[in-house]
């Protein structure tokens, strides 16, 4: 028999429904009202069916003896209907109120609230009690709007999504009952689109507005803001509410320019980069969500390029203008000034905003000359010129202060003949005009230093060099083109004085001994800074015109007698 157990509340704080339950093993006798048996109740119930709601549910219709007369499962589609609008039999209209999504009820309806005395054709006999095994899948209302629930927001939110912005995001898309219908994660590719201009379903267009980079939110939308009555034709059924779990990874607007955030500046900045300069810099490159894609540090080599000439992406060309040596800045580049819609095909996806953390190591211009800063002594008697033999100390660094070398490491001066190609061109230019005791700072551009190749393991290619130089000693050189000069008038018996054994010819020993004796007595000078024996041998070879290893008086001539310039007497 039927026992009336009274009214029960389906959820604390909610209105109670008058329900009747069947006593155990009760015979199928006529019912006075609907009977509901809850066979499954989900842990969470965010929404219950109200009169006027539209629902999607599956059901199996049976008679009390268990014989099935209908099933939505057999048709492969849910039953979709408004509740409380007399589109259902009265008992079902009444029974569905209060159900939650994913809840399962066994609903027993007496004939007077079903098909009554008339039944339903050959399917349902008159005065039939009907049992419905119902699984609720979806609930929405025509008054519904997009619902947004943010469950993670970054501490800093500099910018939010606005109409016409272009976004890149990952999502999981489910129906209201949790059935997954799509995911960008499974494709390992973000969904990239404009927002608010009709490229998306209306609910997503609304749901993405106001998002911060890195924000995670749940966007729930009714079907009339999703795929409507027809669904998408495959995974999304008609009249389905949609739930998108979204994380925003990238955001820009086609009107965006680069943004530059200066993170540190040197105390002294005598010069800022301009179009046409050649820059050496280190960088870390990442996407807007922090995903790393490249670094010059990992290669242990700076990135070297001209700026403002199209050698790098347009945004970097702009971002490197106006920098100081030693400056650190963050350059954020929208995709239309970077790698565009295609990306690089590997680490940089299409339409990606790029973030470069840049450290400027040095820069120069191909038109640069040696920059000289000088501290002169009180007295400056003689200025170094080409041909002079100079001795100096130096400390050498790159523009960022990286140590290259110093004479202090080997405890003696560096000695060169100016104009002899014994040092880089910029150093020669920087030493010209120095006084003994003078100190100079020389900034040497690479085209006057070690060029594009640098010095393996010591000086990077295209590096600007900084030398702090002190001239310690100087020996005046000989006139250009001379390796030996007389300090006094030349004896008219020069050949006979050289010919010690009086055999009418001068050999190399006689020649060398004579020249060295003249130098020792102060009557002549050899060019300073060179190996005396090599100079003397060169002089002898020039005099030995027939190359027989002996000089005769006919061969012997002074330099003043020569039509052409030779390193000889």
What does this entry look like structurally?
This protein has 9 helices and 30 strands. The protein is mainly beta and 569 residues long. The chain folds into 5 domains: 35-140, Chitinase A, domain 3; 147-252, Chitinase A, domain 3, CATH 3.10.50.40; 261-363, Chitinase A, domain 3 (Roll), CATH 3.10.50; 371-475, Chitinase A, domain 3, CATH 3.10.50.40; 484-556, EF-hand (Recoverin, domain 1, Orthogonal Bundle), CATH 1.10.238.10. The strands form 7 sheets. Strands 3, 4, 5, 6, 7 and 8 form a 6-stranded antiparallel beta sheet that branches. The chain is rod-shaped.
Strand fraction band?
Answer: 25-35%
Q: What spatial form do the alpha-carbon principal axes imply?
A: rod-shaped
Mean pLDDT: 90
The CATH topology assignment of the largest domain is Chitinase A, domain 3
Number of helices: 9
* Structural domain count: 5
Give me the Rg, rounded.
47 Å
Q: Low-confidence spans: pLDDT under 50, at least 5 residues?
A: 1-27, 563-568
Roughly what percent helix?
10-25%
By DSSP, the count of extended strands is 30
């Amino acid at each position: 028999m039927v026992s009336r157990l009274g009214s029960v509340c389906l959820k604390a704080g909610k209105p109670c429904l008058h329900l009747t339950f069947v006593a155990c093993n009760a015979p199928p006798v006529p019912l006075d009202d609907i009977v509901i048996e809850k066979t499954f109740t989900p842990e969470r119930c965010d929404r219950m069916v109200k009169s006027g709601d539209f629902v999607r549910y599956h059901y199996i219709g049976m008679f009390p003896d268990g014989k099935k007369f209908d099933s939505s499962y057999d048709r492969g589609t849910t039953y979709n209907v408004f509740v409380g609008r007399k589109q259902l039999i009265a008992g079902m209209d009444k029974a569905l109120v209060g159900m939650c999504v994913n809840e399962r009820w066994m609903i027993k309806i007496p004939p007077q609230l079903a098909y009554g005395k008339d039944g339903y054709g050959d399917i349902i006999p008159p005065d039939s009690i009907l049992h419905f095994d119902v699984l609720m899948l979806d609930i929405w209302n025509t008054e519904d709007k997009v619902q947004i629930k943010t469950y993670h927001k970054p501490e800093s939110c500099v910018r939010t999504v606005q109409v016409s912005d272009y976004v890149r995001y990952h999502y999981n898309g489910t129906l209201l009952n949790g059935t997954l219908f799509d995911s960008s994660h499974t494709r390992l590719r973000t969904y990239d689109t404009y927002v608010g201009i009709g490229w998306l379903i209306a609910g997503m267009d609304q749901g993405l507005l106001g998002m911060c980079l890195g924000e995670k939110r749940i966007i729930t939308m009714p079907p009339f803001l999703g795929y409507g009555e027809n669904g998408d034709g495959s995974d999304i059924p008609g009249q389905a509410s949609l739930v998108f779990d979204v994380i925003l990874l990238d955001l820009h607007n086609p009107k965006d320019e680069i943004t530059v955030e200066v993170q540190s500046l040197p105390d002294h900045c005598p010069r800022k980069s301009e179009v046409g300069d050649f820059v050496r810099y280190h960088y870390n490159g990442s996407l807007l969500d922090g995903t790393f894609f490249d670094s010059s540090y990992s290669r242990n080599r700076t990135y070297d390029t001209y700026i403002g000439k199209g050698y790098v992406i347009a945004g970097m060309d702009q971002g490197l203008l106006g920098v100081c040596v030693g400056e650190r800045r963050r350059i954020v580049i929208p995709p239309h000034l970077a790698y565009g819609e295609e990306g690089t095909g590997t680490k940089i996806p299409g339409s990606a905003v790029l973030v470069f953390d840049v450290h400027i190591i040095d820069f120069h211009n191909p038109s640069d000359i040696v920059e000289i800063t000088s501290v002169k002594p009180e007295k400056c008697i003689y200025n170094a010129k080409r041909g002079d033999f100079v001795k100096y100390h130096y400390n050498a660094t790159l523009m960022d202060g990286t140590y290259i070398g110093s004479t202090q490491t080997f405890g003696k001066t560096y000695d060169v003949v100016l104009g002899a190609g014994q040092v880089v061109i910029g150093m020669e230019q920087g030493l010209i005009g120095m006084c003994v005791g003078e100190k100079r700072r020389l900034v040497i551009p690479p085209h006057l230093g070690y060029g594009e190749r640098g010095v393996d393991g010591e000086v990077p290619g295209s590096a600007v060099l900084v030398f702090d130089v002190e001239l310690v000693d100087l020996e005046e050189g000989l006139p250009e083109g001379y390796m030996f000069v007389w300090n006094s008038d030349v004896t008219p018996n020069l050949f006979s004085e050289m010919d010690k054994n009086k055999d009418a010819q001068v050999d190399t020993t006689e020649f060398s001994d004579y020249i060295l004796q003249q130098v020792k007595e102060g009557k002549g000078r050899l060019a300073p800074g060179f190996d005396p024996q090599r100079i003397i041998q060169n002089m002898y070879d020039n005099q030995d015109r027939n190359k027989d290893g002996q000089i005769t008086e006919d061969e012997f001539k002074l330099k003043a007698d020569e039509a052409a310039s030779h390193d000889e007497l």
